[in-house]
Amino acid sequence: MLLGLWAQAKISLAFRRWGKVQSRSGLTGADVARRILTAAGIRDVEVVPVGGSLTDHYDPRTKKVALSEPVYSQGSIAALGIAAHECGHAIQDARRYAPMYLRSAIVPVTTFSSKLLMPLILAAVFLPILGGSPALSVHLVLGIVAVYAVLAIFQLVTLPVELNASKRAKIILTEMGITPQDEAVGVRQMLDAAALTYVAAFVVTLGQLLYWVFILLGRRR
Asked: Is 86 a catalytic residue?
């Protein structure tokens, strides 16, 4: 939990810091996104605004790069880095990047499993207190282990997808001459902080998985 909070704090601090530094290019996040997509020969992806902060994402189903308001309409170094990152996902989609397609394929299973998690945990915690069957309790914990295993696999697959999108963003911004060397430092710090949140999420989920595995082994004994 502490690792996850630290990662979230790190990206929030990086966004606040580099969100105040304007790029000398004079381009907004939306401008940069459209330029990157055009340069990559991608013409079927739309760049649209979305509410909230740090809600930026690429939706392969609707072919939309959705940028939050601080990114879409502003020209900070943070905005350019985030916009380029989301375009990195659009390029992955266009180039049929295998890990991205694998992640998309397991999204339905992950969504269904995550909805089962809390009911299973509540049942596993209160069933022994209410005098329930020990065998049923073991099966409930087994279900929790299975759910966390699915979530861990999803987050493990997510890591190369996000890291690759950030790598593409850094290279593209430099090659297109949008961010000079001093601004590229800010882009790198921003995207590295974002990548840390995905690493932290995987580590936290893996820790939860191991926790319930040990509980399962103890109840079976």
From this structure: yes
